[in-house]
């Protein structure tokens, strides 16, 4: 009987101890009084001027942020052209549509890409100048925050070879 009561007591202690860990903690909220003051003035709000504009008395409207174009897929993972010649941007070279580099990945390259990364990225991209980055190795673009593309002499960006070789 003594053993049974000690086991029962141990079971109750464990249950109570575990139940405290699983219940939600009580939330305490404190409120502080806030004061609101409203002032009305008859003068319109004037934008801040730099010293040159203040001296001349002229103001210039702030420039609207320029719309940044997205990169355009030229050749997809299957080696197919994803864009027509009419849809290419005006500053893009039209010679890409006759390029022999526009080919699909080999079966070994596809296997490597799918095993390492779980997806097959496009082969060739057109990247607007605003999105291009430069370093000591050349001009590059990072696609989907994962794949590095390097610019070649024709102006298009090709997937870095270390992904599939």
TrEMBL record:
Residues 23-41 have a biased composition (Low complexity). Keywords: Signal. Residues 1-24 form the signal peptide. Residues 23-47 are annotated as: Disordered. This is Uncharacterized protein. It comes from Ilyomonas limi. The lineage of its organism: Bacteria, Pseudomonadati, Bacteroidota, Chitinophagia, Chitinophagales.
């Amino acid at each position: 009987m003594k053993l049974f009561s000690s086991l029962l007591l141990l079971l109750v202690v464990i249950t109570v101890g575990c139940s405290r860990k699983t219940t939600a903690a009580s939330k305490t909220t404190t409120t502080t009084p806030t004061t609101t003051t409203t002032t009305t003035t008859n003068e319109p709000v004037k934008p801040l001027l730099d010293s040159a504009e203040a001296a001349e008395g002229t103001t210039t409207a702030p420039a609207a942020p320029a719309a940044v174009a997205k990169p355009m897929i030229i050749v997809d993972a299957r080696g197919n052209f994803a864009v027509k010649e009419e849809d290419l941007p005006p500053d893009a070279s039209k010679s890409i549509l006759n390029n022999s580099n526009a080919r699909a990945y080999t079966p070994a390259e596809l296997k490597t890409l799918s095993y390492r990364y779980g997806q097959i990225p496009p082969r060739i991209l057109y990247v607007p100048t605003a999105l291009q980055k430069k370093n000591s190795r050349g001009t590059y673009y990072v696609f989907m925050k994962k794949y590095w593309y390097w610019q070649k002499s024709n102006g298009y960006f090709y997937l870095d070879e270390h992904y599939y070789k």
